[in-house]
Structure prediction request, 212 residues.
Amino acid sequence: MAVTHENALPRRRNSDSFIDALALLPWWLTLIAGTGIWFWRRHHPMPAKAMDAHAIAVTLGLMFLQIACFGAALVSAIATIKRKRTFASAKDIESIRAMSWREFETLIAETYRRQGFTVEATGGGGADGGIDLILRGKGHKAIVQCKHWRQRQVGVKIVREMYGVMVAEKADRVVIVTSGAYTQEAQDFAKGKPILLIDGKALAQHIREIKG
Prediction:
């Protein structure tokens, strides 16, 4: 991805429930798992006379796991469709700036997924602030903050704060992506540090390159 400073990294939505964790997997994987459990249960029914407490617990556990896998497959499939639509709608800087902050975050996450990163959406940043994404790939970890600002420039205060978060999180790099631009002071602070600043024009250009 084109950057203001530093080279790009080589090419956690926190899970509140078991289904959330499963939904992070590819939809087809959980669908296969759920179908496999259903198939096994259908061809290995538990005899009624053998239904002691342990057998009942196993049966209920498998039923729960089957339902969880199918539910996660549905959630993951819907999320995948949404990500693809959002990425496809990013045709230029104007279309990117027309997105909501949540769509913008989805766009950035999908952009990094297509570069081979494992992406975790933390859900902790909100519309303005905090870690939005955690990237992992080739032994590296980076934290990402998405700034969907149409007019206001990203200043040095934000860059300095995120640099501190990077150190606290023991990440290898901090990435700040904006649909706008950065102040000169912010760019100067990033020089020589593991800070990746991506402005709107660079983002739009990189997305075009990914799309081919």
Summary: The domain at 97-211 is CATH 3.40.1350.10 (Trna Endonuclease; Chain: A, domain 1). Residues 53-89 form the longest helix (37 residues). Confidence is low (pLDDT under 50) at residues 1-16. Helices lie at 18-23, 27-43, 53-89, 93-97, 101-113, 156-168, 184-190, 200-211.
